[in-house]
Amino acid sequence: MKPIVVRNIERADADSVGVLGGLGVSTVHEAMGRLGLMKPYMRPVWPGGEAAGPAITVLAQPGDNWMIHVAVEQCRRGDVLVVACSSDSTDGMFGELLATSLRARGVLGLVLDAGCRDVKALKEMAFPVWSRAISAKGTVKSTLGAVNVPVVCAGALVNPGDVIIADDDGVVVVPAKNAADVADQGFKRKTDEDGKRQKLAAGTLGLDMYNMREPLAKAGLVYVDKPQDV
Q: Which residues are CB-contacts of 218 (< 8 A; sequence separation ≥ 6)?
């Protein structure tokens, strides 16, 4: 890995980012053909947080948060910082002080494939973080990494400028070049789901709304009135 900081990156279209953020992780994941989802161990350190924005990426060494400090300078208002490690780590590489620095730059949240600490303070300041673990274990600042290079974070490829959407359901990555199309598909999906929600609320069964009865019968499902009829 070459120690490098890329200063100028192309961010996804702001309008598309706004639409995707409003749709949420689950809808975006489905609209993208069930792709782009980070592994489910990436959980919000406090519930209810949401973030959607272009990715500033960091490749760090495990137990070393030096490059996170370097990356702060490259962040703009509305970005989401994404930190991957060169090998597995659960050390507490991020906490209240770094969050304060990122907040001053207008960063909307952090996605960290390692450990996070100072959870109470992060919740109080309403700075959302999605991490692999919560750990008070401290870190060092001694080994170089890279900023704004392609990284694999929790199993998902993230290029600088890609759209990150994160909420209580997890984290999904939308390639910047596909952002407008996925936003359009996601909006259509949401509209369709709104109609289905109204039908279900009115008492329509999913069995009938999705026309499941005939394929269930063909698959061999049999209804009986009493156990002894089996």
A: none
Residue 121 has pLDDT above 80, yes or no: yes
Q: What is the DSSP pairing of strand 80-85 with strand 109-116? A: parallel
Residue that has been written with the tokens 């924005």 in this structure: 53
Predicted structure pTM score: 0.93
Backbone angles phi and psi of 222, in degrees to 5:
-120, 135
Whether the predicted pLDDT of 228 surpasses 90: no
- Distance CA(137)–CA(134), nearest Å, equals 9
Give the C-alpha separation, 42 to 167, whole Å: 10
Four-CA torsion 204, 184, 83, 95, nearest 10 degrees: -60
Q: How far apart are CA 75 and CA 121, in angstroms?
A: 22
Question: How far is it, in rounded angstroms, from Cα 113 to Cα 93?
Answer: 10
Q: For residue 226, what pLDDT is reported?
A: 86
Q: Report residue 117's pLDDT band, with 50, 70 and 90 as the boundaries.
A: very high
pLDDT at 169: 98
